[in-house]
Write the structure tokens for this entry.
Amino acid sequence: MALPPGFLDELRSRISLSGLVGRKVKLVRRGREYAGLCPFHHEKTPSFYVVEDKSFFHCFGCGAHGDVIGFVMRADNLDFIEAVEKLAGEAGLAVPRATPQERERAQRQKTLFEALEAAAAFYEDRLWSRAGGRARDYLLGRGLDPETIRRFRLGWAPDDRRTLRESLTPDFPEPLLIEAGLLHQFSGAGGPEPLDYFRDRVMFPIGDRAGRIIAFGGRVLGDGQPKYLNSPESPLFEKGRVLYGWSAARAGNPRANSGSAALLLGGISRAGVIVTEGYMDVIALHRAGFATAVAPLGTALTEIQLRELWRLDQEPIVCFDGDAAGQRAAARALHRALPFLRAGQSLRFASLPPGEDPDSLIRAHGSSAFTEILEGARPLSDMLWEIELGAKPRDTPERLADVWQRLMSRVELIPDRKVQAEYRNLFYKRFDPRRPRGNSGRRTVRDACAVHEGPPPPPRSPQRLQHELLLRILLHFPCLIDQVAEELASLDFPEAELDRLRQEILRLEGLPTGLDARELQQHLVQTGLATAVDALLSPSVDADSLVRCPDPSSARRVWTEVITMLKRGEPSAVAEAGRNLGTEMSAEKWERFLSAVEQAQQQGLVGNEDQI
């Protein structure tokens, strides 16, 4: 049954979680939290906490976690709709009516969960039976102890394709077991027959956000293929939407539970969420105290899985295997993440030694070695720089431009304008092949551009002169870009080369105020606009004359007057001064232009900046 989110939020706000839990558990206040003995497993020392201000409970003993609805579902053995109806009655709310189809779907999902839970119990039982000795030996040989094996509910599927079916069909119909991905129709001599989907494999239960089993992963014993096999997709399971260990990582992540009892525990990794490649890596990391590890299910990270990661942590650490395949997977994750980066949301990348994975590294060198790996995790920007530049040659202008354009094409995928601007600023500060590191001598844009001597250009139209002046102002005062971007975007530049320059400057809206004129000009040159920049900053224009505007506020005033002239049409005196300025931009003619603007302003012929 689909319930409106507003109704569920109202229901949660009307029910006191500590009051509800307090009916079944004796709670003791500890700071902002309440502690007590967990009602879901036997314990002598309180490990069950209620965080009232964040509206969730969590048990550090068994991993139970949820809100008021989840507590009632567990405590009273109710499904979701039944728990909502019970709480709504207490809160005095009317539950929106469910259609018969919605109720049927909810009941079918409940039955699917029950069938998968029964299958997990079956696989567990077979692992610990005499017949499961070979599977137990494999797990023990991988460094797992019985406690960890039981905690993750690992199991074994016998080498017989009828055992699970015969065990479950007394309680569940075969069509339901097929829908749950536990049986599969195989064609035999006697026709199609539903047989066990998994055979002779170590079984890893896969849970949803609430920890309920929705599928399995099976690791073959021996040399069979495929090495790992996941359940087929079902109404409960889509491989690209699920991360193995997500529920346990949320319980163990102090960042996800900031201010909660998770911070009271010692030994929990403070590194944030760790993304690994496989089931065994996740289990090994949890066993070693890194309780925030998760893994995709044998595929590259999907967009949905990235969003699931960011629900847990703003900057998860991607730590794939140190081999070439692992590095390619990390690069794919980076490229997949670019369109979703925003302020405070990114990835970091940890590099394992070649041939190592987290499981093998910890077994060989201990958890301290893995801690060092995490502490050396690099930001996404560094990885992008390394991947796109790498060993690519940059020894000619053409190769240099190609590398730069490839790097910028990646940056353009970032939708957040501020974040994109920060990446651009970072990269073109690094990307200066003309300036040796640590050398204070800098070559200017004018050094990088050819200056051609020859006859003076023909007179330009007043409109073109005004467009050039606007662009010159921004070339000298990049800090104004944010302020004037909207006005610049509204202008029509019929001059093709000036319009390309205008569009590139608009793409840089949001640049940090620390960006200086030289760096802006250098960026524009490297993006293929050297000719236009050279024309605006050539010696015949006397680039230093704009510094006669002593500060950005003076330049902003001139910008406003030029915009006003473009919109209203400039007075003749200003137009004449502008034409003279366009033919030769000297300090004297610049002063004449400013004087003409001021006189026109005093006469009310152009707008006053205070009125705009």
User: Anything to note?
Assistant: Residues 255-269, 434-458, 539-548, 605-612 have pLDDT under 50 and may be disordered. Residues 100-127 form the longest helix (28 residues).
